[in-house]
Amino acid sequence: MLLGNDHLGWKGTHLHGVGTYFLNIIPKFRAPFRIIPCIMRKKDGLNDLFEAKGIDIKFFGRTKFDIRTLFDFIRVIKKEHIRVMHLQGYAATTFGRIAGRMTNVPVILHQRDADPNYPGYLTVADVLLSRYTALGLAVSEYTKEYLAAMRKIERENIRVLINPVDVAAISAVDQERVSEIRERMGFGPDAKLVGTITRFYPVKGVECLLKAVPSVIREAEDVTFVICGDGPLLDSSKQLAAELGIEKNVLFPGFVPEPKLWLSLFDVVVSSSYSEGCPNALLEAMAIGRPIVSTKSGGPEEFLRDGFSALMVPPGDAEGLAGGILQFLKNKDMASNFAENARKAVTHYDLPNYMTRIERVYKDVANSFGTQLYKPALAER
Fold first, then answer.
1. Which residue has the higher pLDDT, 171 or 286?
2. N or C: which end of the chain has fewer CB within 10 A?
3. What average pLDDT score do residues 244-259 get?
4. CA proximity to 267, closest of 338, 340, 213, 193
């Protein structure tokens, strides 16, 4: 199996969702599966995380338009006797599908979001390469529609697999480290923390969350909003907080390498996005057992149940977000019940269950192409 993506994260140090996915699933594959992870870009500091888990990644060291990526794929396919390719990212899915066509290796195209900035120049490539896609894999029904409409994969040839969450690992939070963060950030024992793990991009709706803050702090005392992450709109978000007069009630810690520690701090977890495929932060908040207020932004509606495991409002509804947050802050029993409902619901997406499903996908694709997933000599090594 070749598991490929454009890069492991952002800026060489910030692990993103696909990188986290690789880190979680690669060590969990059982025999006879042998996974060859490939990244189109050059090696960076994030590789240390994978080496610590004994994961050897092949880095191509190419830019996104480098045609040599095609031949890198072909070399790996031939050398490692690849039988199925599982690809994510625009460069990987473009060059990889051409390589798959040239070597007669089936390709799974994995779509993780409904990208509002879909590059127009990819339309021609996706139209031409759709026939060389053995299977489309989507993280939600929402992204399935995007995969069909934008990337031209036939709907009947798309399966939906919601992102996995390692419930045991996420829920086993080191409370001493959580307490250290709380003390370091100066949060008092009675402070109420409302938080999110996000990226500062327009689609994430951070400005909507900031506009919800004044209504919350008028009705609840000692509340701090903690907005973790970075991105191009970070500075303008800080400026908006100042304009709204809420800068003393909002903290911007920047990128946080261990989101579960911060999620464990929060009394309420919020997602204010306009569009989401399948946000890992919400799945992790469910596993940790936190009450959630989320916009109805696509993917979250498929694993959160409004009025049962979360409170959900339309995208862009700042007052709706504020109202949901206040309900949880004012009613601890309600917050606890919602959190427990979410904790039970997320077990359906636990990592062991996911591994069974993804291995079945690989077998089905291999069988449909009349190929073996591995050579016996390789499996015995």
1. 286
2. C
3. 94
4. 193
